[in-house]
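User: I'm new to structure prediction. If I give you an amino acid sequence, what do you actually give back? Let's try with this one:
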Amino acid sequence: MRFTNKNILVTGGNSGIGLATARAFAAEGGRVAITGRNVDTLRAARATLGDDSVAIVSDAGSLSDIKDLTEQLRNDLGRLDAVFVNAGIAKFGAASDIDESTWDETFDANIKGPYFLIQKLAPLMTNGGSIVLNGSVNAHVGMPGSSVYAASKAALLSLRRTLSAELIPQGIRVNVVSRDPSPHRSTHDWASPKPNSAKWLPASRARLRSVGSQNPTRSPRVSSTWPATTVRSSSAANSSSTAE
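Assistant: Good question. You get back a string of structure tokens that encode the predicted 3D arrangement of the chain. For your 244 residues, that looks like this:
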């Protein structure tokens, strides 16, 4: 069992990519802690992860929740060997439709939250620990309607570079994994776009299909010994909410 005696946090681990990742770690012997905003889905997810798993209600964009999460992890687990910073939101729309609240909500969950989460959790991490950020293809391609979401994910790429250098003395590695769009639950509504958004929806879908067909080999490559070794991928998307 590759992750026996390893403590691993998966934010947004109550659904979609996060839950699938948490289950994979648990199946390999890891003790997993998951977060999410929805109590019911957290309970259901925890039931599939084993009796020693931990489920914590936490909003990825709330600094007070991050502080409380850190204390609970300190009390329940004591240390962390790996963190998958997966929770986030995706709201798409034409630039002319985006309002300040959408900007703030997206950046709170997708970049401010991860930044301060790592800041608070770094003292709990073991030497040789690994932090993986969930990125997106939208940080690499110019998909119409993704301006705010893409900017938040591009910021994660920069964060990975700087924090990798800063956390080297602690023996902590920071990487980004990006993947193709996933079919799980989303905060955006492709079926009922705002008037200005309708014109770019077909082009956006076509753009993502084109990226996938042109880069069939650029899917995530996860080392069989993760989190003991690096996880990298250069292209993909998480076009959904994993913070609920």
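You can read the tokens as a compact description of the fold. Here is one thing that stands out. The two ends are 30 Å apart (CA to CA).
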